[in-house]
Amino acid sequence: MTGGTTTDATAEFFGALAERGHVPMLEWAKGTVRFELADGKRVDRWHLVVDKGDLAVSRRNARAECTFRTDKALFERIAKGEANATAAVLRGAVIIDGDMELLVQLQKLFPGPPAKRGRGASGRRRT
Amino acid sequence: MSDGLVKILDGNTFVVSDSRGDIEASLTDPTGLFSFDTRFLSQWVLTVNGQRLTPLSTDDLQYFETRFFLVPGTGTVYVDSKLSVIRRRAVGNGFREELQILNHDEKPVDLTVRIDAGSDFADLFEVKDALKKKGTYSARVTDGRLVLGYQRETFTRATDISATAPARVDKRGLTFKIRIEPQGEWSTNLDVVTAVIGSGGKHERPTFARPRGRQNMETNLKRWLDQAPTLECDWDSLRETYRRSLVDLAALRFSPPVMGYRSLPAAGLPWFMTMFGRDSILTSLQALPFTPELAATTLRALGDWQGTVVDDFRDEDPGRILHEMRYGELPAFEERPHSPYYGSADATPLFVVLLDEYERWTGDRRIVRELEYEARAALNWIDEYADLMGNGYISYERRNVKTGLENQCWKDSWDSISYRDGRLAGFPRATCELQGYAYDAKMRAARLAREVWKDPEFASQLEKQAADLKRRFNRDFWIADREYFALALDSDGKQVDVLSSNIGHLLWSGIVEKPKAKAIARHLLGPRLFSGWGVRTLGTAEGRYNPIGYHVGTVWPFDNSFIAWGLRRYGFKEEAARIAAGILEAADFFDGRLPEAFGGYERTLTRYPVQYPTACSPQAWSTGAPLLLLRTMLGLEPVGDLLVVDPALPVGIGHVALLDIPGRWGRVDAFGRGRLSAGEKKALRQSQEAMPV
């Protein structure tokens, strides 16, 4: 990966997706989402490409079926699971252009909220 | 309409006005122009020379279009007016109103026509719960248009109002100074456009809204009706009910933002015009023999939104199917969890049930392959996340204790799950029908695994699990001395022992062991559950029974349609036909539009079904009930590539023919002739010409 800081949650998020490679739940999804993350005057661009479940991440400009536009600070929180992407879209804090269905499929890749104490990952009731 | 309000809609954009066409809403008053769960107009009042108007008549032309005939002046005495005012309003990305004024006098007339407009931009939840707003309002006049706005941080909504005739526009409305010649007329179009303002500050439609022209919508409705099977029968009111159901189902179609122009059934008009897991699935099941494409969209949309993470606020788990999606301000700011909310314990197994039933009817295996991952995730949710008590049963308890749902089954009111003595059961609650749905989901998924996913090992595993579940269920839920299944197991694993309609769903799911089915059928048609119109939600001998209690005594048409299907599954044809007769006869009292629920009073006592007062009409699964009852009366069942027809009509019905039923067989016809004596002959309405009483 080139450019920008590499230790932020955004870079970690996309880095993890690139490493994940194949995601079975997206086997029927195909397309590219461009993330445009405004950081002051700079705009960071990330391209997430899915092709029958295979994920690839690129920072080079490419054609995209869908654009996901927000500011870097909010995306950092989305990448850490602290903010919910769907609520952010409803709020107008994220602007979507293009193929909404592709985005809904890819939002499954966003992490959930950090686990609370006394509750495991399974969501089972503690006794 | 019975409440005096006029409602028109397109998707989830709808207008509720009074009979003059005016809107004068307060925070708690439900009139207005709504789109995507936000009210974009709360005031829309027409005056002529400062006077309000009086309605002469209202024509509901289509579900998306109304015409109001008015005369100036108000009061109890009829005004001998020389003027006629006609408002013709059609919904579609806001609405367009054609305003026309006719001068019947021999003299010219000078008029001041005024539209007062305003908006409180209330979230639907605020209208229902009377909450206060946190953002700021604006009103400005630009290019001869009035733009009303609301902003809270990045959340912006605007209403853009313009007219085709010259108008003086101010921040509170539009004024037309006009002269109409003798026998002349004047008209203008008023356009109201709902919008969100994007980050660039320019006007946009809500990113999720798509305009549809009126012409377009008429063609669309006609095509919808043409494509549905044709019903022929000697029961006039059934034909009317059938047509009403098809039109209402068309009105209840909702295209989620992600689904392009494809649509699924929303839950109810006007407050529930959104995607619901349970309601959309059950309505799609009811409508499968008539409009299978609704099921396809429901499956895809719910699959797209399937839960992937553990999120306590949304009661989300991996594999869980959503309960409800909302688009307004409160979910946007996470003051409500509906973005989407997952607190439903039945939608997930029912998703698998619908996937299989859809394939059985249509032969569309592509969607079964596409949704293999989602179906497996749903099945995994049943075992790994839904078994809150570790006893092998689905149970529910909300993790969002502030704004989540307490009861995550279809009987979702606070008092629905009680013991015979009236005490409420503690949480988690494992209601019985959830176990039936889980059993059915596993059995159906086993078929899909074997035939489509080519995974016989998984199929055997599912069948083994299902058989084990059935055995345990028939042991743990069966109340031996009363011969029915408990409504639920409580948090201690003890039986919640009331007699309820839920036992009918168990027949539908096939979880009932054969020897026990007869007792269940006897209870369903027995005096404590069967009112003469249908099966009550709760038996009359139970502590909390109330004939007008929402889930504790009323009769729900949707509930009954699934019970009839269950009775057919176990061979109780005559019992199923009696239920179909009762519900369809009740429909006649509601002009073919079944309400969500009606009173559980004895039919012989009230003679007519007493409507339960609810805010939503039509309700999707009530609209779907006559369709499923037609299926059960004709005994329609796909077997391989054929449609098997095994009719059992209620007494008094001479013949029923359903022509051009779509499915994997192409199109086929089904015929039924009367032969069974179900229902009370005397009670059948006179509209049945074929059978002299």
Describe the protein.
- Chain A has four helices and five strands; from the N terminus they run αββββααβα.
- Chain A has 127 residues and is α+β, with helices and mostly antiparallel strands.
- In chain A, helix 1 packs across helix 2.
- Helix content of chain B is 30%, strand content 24%.
- In chain B, strands 7, 8, 9, 10, 12, 13, 14, 17 and 18 form a nine-stranded antiparallel β-sheet that branches.
- In chain B, strand 23 and strand 24 form a beta hairpin.
- The radius of gyration of chain B is 27 Å and the shape is globular.
- In chain B, 55% of the residues are buried.
Q: How would you summarize what this structure contains?
A:
Chain A is α+β, with helices and mostly antiparallel strands. In chain A, 28% of the residues lie in helices and 28% in strands. Chain A is globular.
Considering the chains and any ligands shown, give keywords for the structure.
heterodimer; A: 127 residues; alpha+beta; five-stranded mixed beta sheet; 4 helices; 28% helix; 28% strand; globular; disordered C terminus; B: 693 residues; nine-stranded antiparallel beta sheet; five-stranded antiparallel beta sheet; 17 helices; 30 strands
Widest sheet of chain A: strand order?
A: 3-2-1-4-5
Number of helical runs of chain B? Answer: 17
- Give the H and E element order of chain A: HEEEEHHEH
Q: How many helix segments of chain A?
A: 4
Strand content of chain B: 15-25%
The level of helicity of chain B is 25-40%
For the terminal residues of chain A, how far apart are their CA atoms? 46 Å
In round numbers, the mean pLDDT of chain A is 85
Largest sheet of chain B: 9 strands, antiparallel
